[in-house]
Automatic annotation (TrEMBL):
GO molecular function: disulfide oxidoreductase activity; hydroperoxide reductase activity; peroxiredoxin activity
EC numbers, comma separated: 1.11.1.28
Active site feature: C133, C136
The protein's name: Alkyl hydroperoxide reductase AhpD
Gene3D superfamilies in the record: AhpD-like
Keywords, sorted A to Z: Antioxidant, Disulfide bond, Oxidoreductase, Peroxidase, Redox-active center
Disulphide bridges: C133-C136
Catalytic activity: N(6)-[(R)-dihydrolipoyl]-L-lysyl-[lipoyl-carrier protein] + a hydroperoxide = N(6)-[(R)-lipoyl]-L-lysyl-[lipoyl-carrier protein] + an alcohol + H2O
Similarity field: Belongs to the AhpD family.
Family annotation (NCBIfam families): ahpD, ahpD_dom
InterPro entries according to UniProt: AhpD, AhpD-like, AhpD_core, CMD-like
Function statement: Antioxidant protein with alkyl hydroperoxidase activity. Required for the reduction of the AhpC active site cysteine residues and for the regeneration of the AhpC enzyme activity.
Domain Carboxymuconolactone decarboxylase-like: 98-170
Organism field: Edaphobacter aggregans
Length: 182
C-alpha cells in the first residue's frame, strides 16, 4: 500500500498524526531530503511494522533517497537494533562490572556507509530514541553536536521519528483490534 493511502487510512483518533506527518514530512524545511527520508526509513524499520516499513521505503525512493543512502538508513537501523539492546542492558543493570567488559560486537556499519556522517548519526539517533536507549541517544546526540549539527536540526529529526513511531503503533493497534460487526 502506498504511504499516502496508509496515512490517509488512519482512524479518526489519529488525526493529529496525519496533521503532524503532513507538516513534518511533506512540508519539511528543516532537514535535507536525504536527512528527512533516511530518518523516516530508519524510524519505520525501528517500529517493526512491515506495512509501514514497505510503504516508507517505496516512498523514500520516489522522493530521491538513492540506493546508497537507503542502505545506510537500513544499516543504521540494524546496527542500532543490536547496540540499543546491549547498551540499554548496561543502563538497566545495577551491576557496574558489565560496563567494564568489552562489547565484542562488530560495528563496521558505523564507518562503512556512503553518506555524510551527520546524516548517519541522525538515523542512529532516531532508532535509539525509538528503542529508548539512553546511552546511545546521549552518545549520538553528542557526536552530532561535535560535527556541527544544531539542536534544532536534531530536534526536527526526533519530531519526525516520533510521528513515524506513533503511526506504527496505531497500525499495530488497528490490526489487533477486533473489527466491529456490520
Amino acid at each position: 500500500m502506498a504511504l499516502e493511502e496508509l496515512i490517509g487510512g488512519l482512524p479518526a483518533y489519529a488525526k493529529d498524526l496525519k496533521l503532524n506527518y503532513s507538516s513534518l514530512v511533506k512540508q519539511n524545511t528543516e532537514l535535507t531530503k536525504q536527512q528527512l527520508w533516511g530518518t523516516v526509513v530508519s524510524a519505520a524499520i525501528a517500529t517493526r511494522n512491515p506495512e509501514l516499513t514497505a510503504a516508507v521505503i517505496a516512498e523514500s525512493e520516489a522522493n530521491g533517497l538513492n540506493a546508497g543512502a537507503l542502505d545506510a538508513a537500513k544499516a543504521a537501523a540494524a546496527i542500532m537494533g543490536m547496540n540499543n539492546v546491549y547498551y540499554r542492558f548496561h543502563h538497566l543493570t545495577s551491576n557496574e562490572k558489565y560496563a567494564t567488559l568489552p562489547a565484542r560486537l562488530r560495528m563496521n556499519a558505523l564507518r562503512g556507509h556512503s553518506v555524510e556522517h551527520v546524516d548517519f548519526e541522525l538515523w542512529c539517533l532516531a532508532v535509539s530514541a525509538v528503542n529508548a536507549c539512553g546511552k546511545c541517544v546521549d552518545s549520538h546526540e553528542q557526536v552530532l553536536r561535535q560535527k556541527g549539527a544544531t539542536e534544532e536540526l536534531i530536534n526536527a529529526a526526533i519530531r519526525v521519528t516520533s510521528v513515524i513511531h506513533a503511526i506504527g503503533v496505531v497500525l499495530d493497534s488497528e490490526k489487533a483490534s477486533p473489527t466491529p460487526a456490520a
